[in-house]
Amino acid sequence: MNEVQKDPMFEVFMSEAKEIVNSLERIFIELKEGNRNFDVAVTEALRFFHTLKGSSAMMGFDNISKVCHRVEDIFVCMRDEGKLPINLDNFILDMLKLVDFLTIQINRIENLQQPQDAENIEEVLEKIEMSLAENGKAQTESEKRYHIRLLFEEGWEMENLRAFLIVQNLKQYVKVLEYLPSDIEVNMASSEKIKKDGFFISIETLLKKEDIVKLFENFAWVKDIKIEEVSEKASLTKEISSWQNAVQSTHKLINVNIEKVDKLIDLIGEVVITFSMIVQHQEIKTDENSSFKNLTLQMSKLIRELQEVAMSMRMLPLSSTFQRLKRTVIEMSAKLQKPVDVHITGEETELDKVLIEHLTDPLIHIIRNAVDHGIEDKEERLKKGKNITGNVYISAKNSGSEVVISIEDDGRGLNKEKILQRALERGIINSPDDIGEDEIFELIFQPGFSTKEEATEYSGRGVGLDIVKNSIQKIGGRIFVESEKDRGTRFTIRIPLTLAIIDGMLIDVDGNVFVVPLSSIVETFKLEKQQIVLENEVPFVYRRGTCFSVIDLNKIFYGNDIRNKEKTYYLGILITNGEKNGILLVDNMISQQQIVIKTLPAILKQVRGISGCTLLGSGNIAFILDIDALLER
Amino acid sequence: MQEELLSNKVAEFEETMKDMYLIFKVDDQLYGIEIKYVIEIIGLLPITYVPNQEEYVKGIINLRGKIIPVIDARMRLSKPQKEYNERTCVIVISIDDFLAGIIVDHVSEVAVINKDQISPLPPTYEKIDERFFRGVANLNERLVLIIDCETFVKPDRINL
């Protein structure tokens, strides 16, 4: 570790700076989408640039502080002199470039690299400065529209009726357009909503902000008032969601070194194991003292909760990843002259931090493909009778122990004939009959496969979907593709919630315990000796019309054939990785349980078929099977 | 003043550590490991066999939640195998952030061996893998073979 990095001041600066560039990026993206009022955005961005300028100057990062200073001037001009950019879209794209520049600088500082030359950004800055129109904003005396959020003091109860009182009172002075929740008079449950999120009102008035605040001073239970001036069409519902996001992000947070969290999780893992050793101890097991049994029961509950909390500490929402995807689409859509709308759902879905890091690049790749290859240009869409504006849907949701992320476009869809032709050319298949109808799309995940004739700026640079698939598999995930001609394409990615814990089935292989990840098990069954066909020493099993290869774990790991053992029957486990299937031959099945994954010591030679190990309640070590590797054999 | 004293003490301690060796026995022969590598000495724990390893890698053990590989000094030194008994112990060492255990017949003492007491191995020893040794030391008229921890513990080649 370098001396600079250990400095707590430095760490505080880093985390603050990163937060600022993220917030800036969000502001500009929301501005682009019309989800944010321009004036509000300017004020907020100005504040962020100002803070960053100050802290970076203090830390001696002049490169950043100088750029921020220039930008601050631009924003002050916009706020105080009413200057506006001629072309808002271009302005936003330039601002995003600037945010990128800052992000790169910050990352370089963190990695103790020399800052990047500021020349590239100079051009952008000049462009922004030039683009501010000379003409001031027209001052109008017309009524302005405000969105207001009121937070109530706790403990007053009957929040809905109090809100109703406020609305009635307000109506004497201003035009009340809308309020949310809207059913305060009749629905008692709305009281809970107000307690949680606050009460929202949309008004139109000639009054100034300060005067509006005064109107609320008569109501003792109003704790906090937030007023924002909005444009004509801004809808209250949209505003609420952006405010709610703001509320969420102000949850009290502290930055913790990830190593410390890992250490904590490790320690808790040890506590879990030690505790189960205590419970299983002979002296305690035979003790009939029931008060002790109660205590252990309580203790195990506590420990499980502790483990859950610790695991959740590594979880982060997907929102910032999705934000980057959205941004990629915005930039591409501007460059390729293809209007594209992005629809995002489930960005609050949480995933292990490490998984998120590995997921971002594959997702960006898929998004690029969708906008570049998938969505047609305007003329083509018109001809097909589609709306000129293309759509990309990004969504995430929890599904059992997995998170499902899908990226869907309403473009031209994958071209089956082209894919088949390409696969034949590349020798991936020998004849079109080799492959089933529903397997054709899977071909695009093959190495060296690309249906795009020429490389564009966004794709065809040698990075194919095979890499995407690989990186997703590396984190234990799976990817699927569906497509319909002229309707669009959908990629679905399923990822385990966390890398560190999986549901597993414990099995016995020659007296040793192994773990099969539950997610890869299709079914388990008994096998008679004669059901295992042996042709040229290659064993296979015919089951329900399909022939499966047999993976004899005894032979693979211990060199002795299980079929030499005196057994009346064998146990088979049908496993799959979504593509290939096989049958594991094992001695016995023990139990099912959650296991904490540990890596094998680095100095050991890698064992094909084993992906890691875990500690059992007894303190013994069990190996975790690497299903993909076993099926590749 | 106080701090200076303390840092002197630390330096002094490190200085003395430098020449300290943990002496252990395999087949009546003495071997020494620099004490700076040694984390602790434990009794034999249940070993889980790991397939596809060099023969001298006996497997992995669970040391209070940490998974560490154990290697058999006897086999690494190409000596005839012997059953483990109650005197058998495992020296847990740490090299470049990784832990490993070495199974030895028994640990005898910690001794101070100065640099000038260590002389290179004579080239005549045919059956000895010279890579494992830094030299021979004369300790009260007994010969101690000084082990090079890194080559001793790390596999000859890691295939990734």
Keyword list:
heterodimer; A: 633 residues; alpha+beta; six-stranded mixed beta sheet; five-stranded mixed beta sheet; 20 helices; 24% strand; globular; disordered N terminus; B: 160 residues; OB fold (Dihydrolipoamide Acetyltransferase, E2P); 3 helices; 16% helix; CheY-binding_CheA (chain A); chemotaxis (chain A)
Task: Report the helical percentage of chain A.
Answer: 40-55%
Mean pLDDT of chain B: 82
CATH topology of chain B: OB fold (Dihydrolipoamide Acetyltransferase, E2P)
- Count of helical segments of chain A? 20
Structure classification of chain B: alpha+beta
Please outline the major beta sheet of chain A.
6 strands, mixed
Total of helices of chain B = 3
The total count of strands of chain A amounts to 22
Q: What does the oligomeric state look like here?
A: heterodimer
Radius of gyration of chain A: 30 Å
Question: What's the shape of chain A?
Answer: globular
Can you give a write-up of this model?
Chain B: Pfam families: CheW (PF01584). Chain B: Residues 18-158 form the CheW-like domain. Chain B: This is Chemotaxis protein CheW. Chain A: Its EC number is 2.7.13.3. Chain A: Residues 298-499 form the Histidine kinase domain. The complex is a heterodimer of chains A (633) and B (160). Chain A is α+β, with helices and mostly antiparallel strands. Chain A is 43% helix and 24% strand. Chain A has 20 helices and 22 strands. A six-stranded mixed sheet of chain A has the order 14-18-19-17-16-15. Chain A has a five-stranded mixed sheet with strand order 6-8-9-11-10, covered by helices on one side. In chain A, strand 12 and strand 13 (512-517) form a beta hairpin. In chain A, helix 4 (62-80) packs parallel to helix 6 (119-131). The longest helix of chain A has 25 residues, at 8-32. Chain A is globular. Chain B has a six-stranded mixed sheet. Chain B has a five-stranded mixed sheet with strand order 3-6-7-5-4. Chain B has helices spanning 2-18, 73-76, 149-153, and strands at 20-26, 29-34, 38-43, 57-63, 66-72, 89-95, 98-104, 106-112, 118-119, 133-139, 142-147. Chain B has three helices and eleven strands. With 160 residues, chain B is an alpha+beta fold. Chain B has a single domain (2-153), classed as CheA-289, Domain 4 (OB fold (Dihydrolipoamide Acetyltransferase, E2P)). The interface between A and B is medium-sized, with 27 and 26 residues.
